[in-house]
């Protein structure tokens, strides 16, 4: 079989060397190269084999040139012969037909069976790498391989002549046309016995086997209602489905999928129904084709359409004698949501259309007609026997309505009422005949005791049983103050203050049991309550073991009471501050008392080192930098700047720095040595001066202690801040001109002010 695959392009399906090499398409040459590589033969072996087949060296050279030229260009995706046919088909009338179907919208849902011949994954291409089928009928151009082995060894590769014969040695021709492999083997072995006595006889020691080498191609004609009728060259192993696939299958608009006829020698030999394969995987009529067979696709006779809740909505072809139930079976039956009581038929009459309702009882015997459209609806989202119970029952939910169901029976089905059920009133929500809602009140206590008549239920009734908890605000108590877990807790009857303190985790450190206060809401009882007081206050004392006095032990908390537990008057948790920098003992220090100040902290830290630069001291409180003059408060501790210390305060006293940093809109931002004789403007000049974007009159200075001073201007003169070591000189960017430019009235006002001021100055000069 391997050599057959290799040389199939040389013989039948492509003209190959039988014609001019130049007539071969690039795709045919690529197929040959792929088959040759997969065969495992070397290039020399292929050339020798071609020469033995009668091909000239010139033919072989031309083929080699074609192969070399193709190897220098990117090869397209390799396609099987059937896929090549499909590709050509898609480029012609098949694409036109599909466009036409899309434009008209006539096949939505599609015709059942069309996907079988339009899928690229299902080609029905015959498998050529299989053992020789014993029932394969030999014909001209088939290659037979005869292996003689045993005491004698010989190999023959013989092609069947157009007359249907093969020639062995000097023996007379053996006619094998139309024989199966098995029949041909008997005839050939019989003829070879003239050369090998006792061939295949028991004990002879000489045996022979016959197999198929390369197989021939056949020409099959597809006529009738196929997408692309014509004559196609196929493998002799091809079947009817293979031929239909290459031709695009039956035409979806006109072709029958159930009346496909195969003619051989002007005789009808088989009628194929594609539905047998689609519905039952039955290929009994998918016979192997022979040369000059004709496959004829008839017009369809009757088609109907199934829509709605069927598993496979589509257009189905119906044969004579088939009923509606058969077509529903073609579609896989109804879906789980289908309305099964009846279905709707849209039928064409002689003049117009009509609607027919088909009951479920009529479906098994109903005969479809041409053009019928059957619509299967879905069941509605509605229950015919549902009642619901919710609220204070043990198993709330949905239950089935029985013929004599009552409220009491429904409660019993729901495992009865819970202990917290509100018995004075339950409600039944019911829909009237016009679907308006109606609310029915029920005295549940009397009904359950049998003191009143039970109430019959109707479909979609909803019985609601309230609980006491649902009918009142959630009852809680709250505890504040010196307990470990101050929180809100659910109220319980007979709850005492000690119980609540235990729920809150007990007293926290510093709590005093002698100052417990309770605030209670005022309801109706306002006796002895001042007119301007909206709550009642109670005070209690507990000992360390959470015991009340005898008088207070009888006091019980009410819902929504709030309990306040105080701390000792002088109790306070430790608070600390931090001092860093140029002090002998930097670090964290506890605040001794509420009157401790900054100077006292510095003294506790060992005073100041000689390197301390007090002007740059930074005092931070709550993340904010405060302006504190440390030099002044050290000289005069009573100064108001000597602040009281608070928890989290931080003081940093740096070492003196002799540097000045210039930032912002200068040509060369830099760090420069401090020089007392230099002005701010000199420092800016030392950094290259202002840039074109500099906002000169807004220059400001950030001193080492965090203080900020800006440039002042008077009568056109600028007064810069005094320079100090460690400062940052900041030159901001000039805002856009539209933001800084004065309006006309503003310019007039400024000029008037300047003129008036100049007049005042001149007057003063004259007076003196």
- CATH first level of the largest domain: which class? Alpha Beta
Q: At the fourth CATH level, what is the homologous superfamily of the largest domain? A: Outer membrane lipoprotein wza domain like
Radius of gyration: 54 Å
Number of helices: 19
Helix content: 10-25%
Q: Sheet bearing the most strands, described?
A: 5 strands, mixed
Q: How far apart, in Å, are the first and last alpha carbons?
A: 132 Å
Can you tell me the CATH topology of the largest domain? Outer membrane lipoprotein wza fold like
Question: Structural class, from helix and strand content?
Answer: alpha+beta
Describe this structure in words.
The structure is a single chain. With 768 residues, this protein is of the alpha+beta class. The protein folds into nine domains: 78 residues, no CATH class; 70 residues, wza like fold (2-Layer Sandwich); 83 residues, Outer membrane lipoprotein wza domain like (Outer membrane lipoprotein wza fold like), CATH 3.10.560; 74 residues, Outer membrane lipoprotein wza domain like (Outer membrane lipoprotein wza fold like, Roll); 86 residues, Outer membrane lipoprotein wza fold like, CATH 3.10.560.10; 92 residues, Outer membrane lipoprotein wza domain like (Outer membrane lipoprotein wza fold like, Roll); 78 residues, Roll (Outer membrane lipoprotein wza fold like); 76 residues, Outer membrane lipoprotein wza domain like (Outer membrane lipoprotein wza fold like), CATH 3.10.560; and more. Helix content is 23%, strand content 26%. The protein is built from 19 helices and 37 strands. The strands form nine sheets. Strands 7-6-10-8-9 form a five-stranded mixed beta sheet, covered by helices on one side. A five-stranded mixed beta sheet has the order 12-11-15-13-14, covered by helices on one side. The chain has a five-stranded mixed beta sheet with strand order 17-16-20-18-19. A hairpin with a 4-residue loop joins strand 13 and strand 14. Helix 1 runs antiparallel to helix 2 and helix 2 packs across helix 4. The longest helix has 24 residues. The N and C termini lie far apart (132 Å). The N terminus is likely disordered.
């Amino acid at each position: 079989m391997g050599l057959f695959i290799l040389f199939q392009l040389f013989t039948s399906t492509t003209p190959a060397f039988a014609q001019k090499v130049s007539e071969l398409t690039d795709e045919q040459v690529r197929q040959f190269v792929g088959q040759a590589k997969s065969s495992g033969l070397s290039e020399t072996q292929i050339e020798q084999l071609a020469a033995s087949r009668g091909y000239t060296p010139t033919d072989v050279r031309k083929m080699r040139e074609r192969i070399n030229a193709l190897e220098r260009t990117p090869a397209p995706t390799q396609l099987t012969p059937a896929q090549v046919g499909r590709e050509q088909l898609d480029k012609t009338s098949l694409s036109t037909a599909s466009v036409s179907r899309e434009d008209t919208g006539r096949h939505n849902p599609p015709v059942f069976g069309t996907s079988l011949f339009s899928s690229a994954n299902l080609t029905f291409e015959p498998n050529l790498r299989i053992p020789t089928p014993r029932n394969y009928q030999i014909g001209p151009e088939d290659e037979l391989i005869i292996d003689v082995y045993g005491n004698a060894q010989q190999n023959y590769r013989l092609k069947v002549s157009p007359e249907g014969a093969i020639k062995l040695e000097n023996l007379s021709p053996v006619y094998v046309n139309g024989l199966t492999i098995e029949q041909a083997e008997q005839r050939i072995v019989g003829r070879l016995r003239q050369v090998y006595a006792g061939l295949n006889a028991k004990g002879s020691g000489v045996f022979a086997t016959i197999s198929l080498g390369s197989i021939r191609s056949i020409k099959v004609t597809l006529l009738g209602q196929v997408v692309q009728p014509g004559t196609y060259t196929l493998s002799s192993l091809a079947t009817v489905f293979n031929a239909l696939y290459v031709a695009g299958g039956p035409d979806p608009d006109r072709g029958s999928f159930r009346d496909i006829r195969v003619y051989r020698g002007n005789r009808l030999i088989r009628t194929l129904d594609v539905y047998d394969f689609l519905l039952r995987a039955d290929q009994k009529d998918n016979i192997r084709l022979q040369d000059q067979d004709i496959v004829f696709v008839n017009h369809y006779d009757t088609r109907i359409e199934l829509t709605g809740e069927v598993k496979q909505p589509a257009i189905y072809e119906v044969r004579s004698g088939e009923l509606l139930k058969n077509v529903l079976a073609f579609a896989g039956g109804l879906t789980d949501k289908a309305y099964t009581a009846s279905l709707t038929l849209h039928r064409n009459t002689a003049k117009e259309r009509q609607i027919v309702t088909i009951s479920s009882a009529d479906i098994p015997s109903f005969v479809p007609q041409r053009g019928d459209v059957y619509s299967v609806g879905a069941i509605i989202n509605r229950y015919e026997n549902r009642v619901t119970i919710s609220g204070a029952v043990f198993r709330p939910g949905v239950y089935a309505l029985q013929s004599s169901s009552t409220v009491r029976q429904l409660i019993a089905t729901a495992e009865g009422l819970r202990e917290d059920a509100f018995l004075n009133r339950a409600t039944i929500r019911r829909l009237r005949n016009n679907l308006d809602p109606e609310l029915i009140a029920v005295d549940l206590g009397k009904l359950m005791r049998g003191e009143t008549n039970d109430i019959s239920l109707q479909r979609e009734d909803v019985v609601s049983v309230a609980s006491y908890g649902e009918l009142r605000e959630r009852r809680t108590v709250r505890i504040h103050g010196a307990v470990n877990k101050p929180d809100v807790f659910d109220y319980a009857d007979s709850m005492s203050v000690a119980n609540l303190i235990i729920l809150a985790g007990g007293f926290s450190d510093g709590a005093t049991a002698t100052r417990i206060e309770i605030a209670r809401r005022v309801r109706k009882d306002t006796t002895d309550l001042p007119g301007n007081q909206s709550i009642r206050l109670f005070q209690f004392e507990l000992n360390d073991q959470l015991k009340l006095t005898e008088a207070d032990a009888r006091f019980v908390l009410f819902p929504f009471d709030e309990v306040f537990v105080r701390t000792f008057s002088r109790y306070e948790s430790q608070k600390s501050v931090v001092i860093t920098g140029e002090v002998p003992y930097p670090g964290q220090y506890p605040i001794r008392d509420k009157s401790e100040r900054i100077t006292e902290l510095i003294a506790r830290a060992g005073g100041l080192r000689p390197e301390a630069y007090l002007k740059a001291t930074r005092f931070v409180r709550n993340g904010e930098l405060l302006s504190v003059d440390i030099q002044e408060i050290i000289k005069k501790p009573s100064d108001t700047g000597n602040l009281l210390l608070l928890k989290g305060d931080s003081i940093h006293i740096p070492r003196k720095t002799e540097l000045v940093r210039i930032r912002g809109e200068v040509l060369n931002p830099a760090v420069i040595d401090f020089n007392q004789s230099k002005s701010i403007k000199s420092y800016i000049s030392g950094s290259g001066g202002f840039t074109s974007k500099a906002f000169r009159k807004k220059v400001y200075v950030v001193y080492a202690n965090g203080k900020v001073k800006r440039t002042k201007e008077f009568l056109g003169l600028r007064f810069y801040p005094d320079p100090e070591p460690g400062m940052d000189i900041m030159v901001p960017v000039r805002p856009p001109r539209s933001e800084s430019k004065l309006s006309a009235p503003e310019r007039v006002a400024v000029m008037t002010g300047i003129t008036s001021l100049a007049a005042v100055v001149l007057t003063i000069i004259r007076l003196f």
